[in-house]
Write a structure and sequence with these properties.
mainly alpha; 223 residues; 10 helices; 69% helix
């Protein structure tokens, strides 16, 4: 993937989102408002997408980013699931969206249908793209149940959504700047779906920042 300002900014926002999450966990010593099930989905996304680490080197930057995303997400899951006192604040009943039942099977099917070829790497890449586009759902559902969103948690989710929006701008830029034009229909469709899922959250997040108030999601908000 060619580097440009939009992609680099997206990468930095993605890094920032993870730093904000780890900062929230380490500072507060609790994981209230954080969906471990979303983190598990992202770990599956990264492990599926970055299997090329085993056989293909692109650059030091690329390798470092991939390793960081895998390691930091695995560490986050460990903190929430197993590391006291953080793990003692994890509400398994609230964070119970069954992604294994409702999200993974359709993503597997879509990956088989949309992969460029039936090689393992291409199927895993397509699977990771489709899974990432819906990985935010457990987090949004959990926040909707809680309604009141902590500042660091809100900033984390906002940065996570903004990074994907910048990747859409990256794709638009590459389409017009590269010859032949960059085309990736699977990534485009999944990216638009993923960004659209954040719209409701972004609306209330922006209102809370504009008025300097705590982020509170209304009962009728849809996720």
């Amino acid at each position: 993937m060619a580097m440009n300002a939009f992609r680099f900014a997206g990468d930095m926002l993605h890094l920032l989102s993870i730093v904000l999450l780890l900062l929230k966990l380490r500072r507060s010593k609790n994981c209230v408002g954080i969906s471990c099930r979303m983190q598990e989905m992202y770990l599956l996304v990264f492990c599926s997408r970055y299997v090329d680490l085993l056989y293909h080197f692109i650059s030091v930057y690329n390798t470092a980013m991939k390793l960081f995303f895998i390691a930091s997400t695995a560490y986050t899951v460990y903190l929430i699931r197993f590391k006291p006192p953080i793990s003692q604040t994890y509400d398994r009943r609230a964070d119970s969206f069954p992604y294994e039942k409702y999200l993974i099977p359709p993503c597997i099917l879509l990956s088989l249908v949309t992969a460029e070829d039936w090689s393992v790497s291409e199927i895993l890449w397509a699977f990771s793209i489709w899974l990432e586009c819906v990985a935010i759902l457990p987090q949004l559902i959990l926040l909707q149940q809680l309604r009141e969103v902590e500042n660091l948690t809100g900033n984390y989710v906002a940065a996570l959504g903004a990074y994907r929006f910048l990747y859409i701008l990256n794709w638009v830029y590459r389409y017009f700047a590269e010859s032949p034009p960059y085309v990736n229909y699977v990534g485009w469709i999944a990216g638009v779906i993923q960004t659209a899922l954040y719209v409701d959250f972004f609306y209330y997040y922006a209102l809370s920042k504009w008025y300097g108030q705590k982020l509170v999601l209304p009962v009728h908000a849809e996720v």
